[in-house]
Amino acid sequence: MKKTVLINFLLCLSTGLLSQGQSFETDYELSVCKGNMPIDFSTDILEKTIKDVEKDNFDLSTAKKKKFYENSNYYIYNFLNGGKVLFGDELSLYVNKVAQTLFEKSGNTAIQDKFKFYVLKSNVVNAVCMADGSIFITVGLLSQIESEAQLAFVLAHEIAHYTLQHGIKTYSNNEKLKTQYNRSKIEYDDAISDLSEHSKDQELESDRVGFEMFIKAGYHMDEAMKMLLVLQYSHLPFDELEFENTFFNRDRYTIPSNYFETEELTDNIEDNSDIDDSYSTHPNIKTRIENLEIEFTNNRNGMKGVKSYEAESEFSYIQTKARFETQYLNLIQRKFIKTIYESFLLKKKFPNNKFLDECIAKALYAISKNKTNGNVSYNSNTEGNSLELFNLFEEKMDKKEVNILALKMLLEVDSDKLKPYILDLLIDLTNEHGMSYDSFYYNEKQVVVDTTKVKNDSIVEEVIVKEITQFKLLDSAEYLALTKVGKIKYNRAKKRHFALLADTISTQIKEVDVPVKSNYYKTAFFDKGNDKKFKELFNEANEMESPNYFEDLSYSEQANLKREREKRARSSKSVKVDSIIILNTNYEIYKRNGDFDTRNSFKLENIMSQKLNEEFANSDVAFLDLTTTTLNNQSIDIVNANFIIKEWKNEMNASYDNKMLPLTQDRMNGVVKSLGYKNVMIMGVYNEFNPIIFNQMILARWLPLISIIIAPGVWPLHIVRFNKFNTTKYAYVMDENGYNILYRKFESNKNVNVKQDEIFIEYIINQLNPEK
Question: pLDDT, tens digit, for every residue of 93-106?
């Protein structure tokens, strides 16, 4: 009853929040968590496991149930606290609102207390249901669905997974299959096939049960079918429009038109709805649609259903918000081409939005760094209109041209927080491409128009179109009004339409003038000619010895500097640290059979965190504990700061590999400024049993006898000691820019030991000196 009251309160709150939403016209603020933290974030997973085992009536041994729920709860616990989950924000409130409607309209309010709904900050189009009834809907999915009803079908599908106990059933079947495989009763390929087939059965069963709930709730059955098509094309951007070849042009700066494709790129989108799913964990889309059609035949109420219970403007707002969120997620998940293309789509409606301009500029910066450093993987699709951008940056533009375009877009945003990226590209422009401030044109007299032309034969097809009543050609306005899936279906139908025409197709050869590749990029900064600040940026970049990469944790061209800093971080007796954020205490213990020891890992991680708190409290270093053990005491502002730091840490590691500045550094700078703590600490222990050494120990038992009989000269080997365990304790401290200022690692052949952990903690804290 209490939970129902809380849900109703949240729904009332959501109405107010959505009515006060962002306009999107000029800027955008990324979503953050709001309100009180859900209790699941700070639940003791060992106590939770005991309760789960007691109430579970599935036909499985208590020991296996315990193992299943321990692992599941530990995974959920870390999932919730990994910095990727939203709660209390507009997206989450909307998802909960639709879930509430689904339960009420379908007559399933009796089970709604079993579920919790969250939004996951991921651009992958997906949803997942955990063993405890936690359902996570990704931002990517919210950005692609086309109606409230489609979201309701996804929720119904995930709810069905839980009510059908698919989580523990899959675990049980996997255990049986693993036992059979280990005993050589089945072949590997058969094992994979059996696992996949079982999983496909579960997906189809969830479709069936979820669809029944969906129809009972009064939603239109067509929306369920459309949702499956959304999933089929979810690897594509949220819409399909031809990229405008003038999008990057400004005043005197014009990218040659022959840099862009002229063919219809939507023609290369394949229909893989009936793809072979023999080795897939999910049935193909065609199978799922056919199964839903069978269900519909048995229940025709679906044709009387609705697309939405709430105002469609509310859904439209949430969809747009998710699409803005996705641009940031595309950036930090290295989908740079997608960032530019989808931001281009959004700018069709919101041309003055600064957030989108910043996303485009950062994506171009990353593409330039990748191209300059010899990396060409932009995580691009190989289908659809976004492929044109891949061709532009990979095939048409050279390193210098991409660098100049990225620099131009960064300068256009006109934000001080982007200055590090500008300086980094200016260094590349000078050192890698041999250009300087004087290489560009800043007045009319310098501009030289390249009139050189080349004749190129191009085939142009003239088609006499026969009017066919079964197909309607749409005008541009009607085409733009279609959804992404609608555009794909329309283009495919249009292609079939023309292929079936019986009229004569005449082909003519026409000469087309194509300009030779010129020095168009020299006018990129034409409007900066009298800008003193712009010239000073060139000078500042030239005075910098090297770009400010974060060498310490990954690869770098500055090899000598890396070795020097690593040596200093390892060998220095102490470092000056007056304030520190304890971000993570990680504990990983693996059993002899290789399984993760959830119980002991969780217990010892908490003990380590508590000990770290005690030692810092007795030191002169100001500290802020953001480990999971203190989550229930953290304010919502601290929780959001915690999640931003974790996001920065993860994205920073990926940036190291590409030898570029982290794309999240500006958000981290904001956190440091607001909290006042300048350094971040991560500490952990990794422990595993060494099975190879264990086998050597068996041999060692016989070694004395063997040595006496065969070779007395090897008697000293009698006293060889073999290591049973590999245990590594590590700690590192980073400054606010991500540089490692202290790094310590100790390895031993001993098992985990709380006392040894305490000694290690004391040793590390003694090396943090605020007065140095």
Answer: 999 999 999 999 99
